[in-house]
Task: structure prediction
Amino acid sequence: MRILACLNADLFSCLAINRLLPALAGHDVSIALTQRVGKAGTDTVEPPQRRELRQAEQHIPLELLFPLVERANLPDDGTRLLTFRELTTRRGIPVTALPNPNNEEGLAWVRAQAPDLVVSIRYGAIFKSAFLAIPPLGVLNLHSGLLPAYRGVLATFRALANGENEIGCTVHYIADGTIDTGPIVATTRTPVDRSRSLFWHIAQLYGPGVEALGKAAQRVLRGETLPVSEQPGGAYYTYPTTEEWGRFAADGWTVVTLADVAAVWQRFGATP
Result:
């Protein structure tokens, strides 16, 4: 079977696809990347906390960490994660920029891949009906929030800010062009630790979340029909405002710590 993994070009997407690939062994996998998730939000100037998170999850990995790892030519011995480039050079998995999957050019490229199944993690564009009609087995999305309560971007921030005791992921089908509303396949839950950062909490989601996505994909690829539950109405969140980030800090939360970043970097074979 042919599988198209739609991801964002960031640290957590790379972490997630490394964890997902063993579940897709024996299938033909290709990767499509966006460069950003959603829009910047309503603030004219990006809040410094959002910029700090974006630098830790995207700019520093892509511009510093990944190139350093690639130049070091570390062995692919199964003990570390691979960068996007290494997934191509070491594993032969094609990685292609696909900023718009819905225009004529994007749709032509996807049709040429002829995917049987699409899996989506942190992908930065909304799939429209023409795209959704391409894979015969559908589109499975891993959303980093518990649906339907936490639709939209930075669901983990919202859950922590709202005082939740647990965060989670939702595996669901994307059935139309709406956001995070499709039939739910599975959910996973992770306890909140108030001593750790927002970055740390996001990283924790992708262990159980990717495991659930992998199991769902395996069943679909075997021809099984997944049991699903339809979503009731829920809340949709966009990027937090400067004021909301301020309240987050006032409640005692940190956005990123060096220790939490280092723990993820070490999995690629590097230390900050």
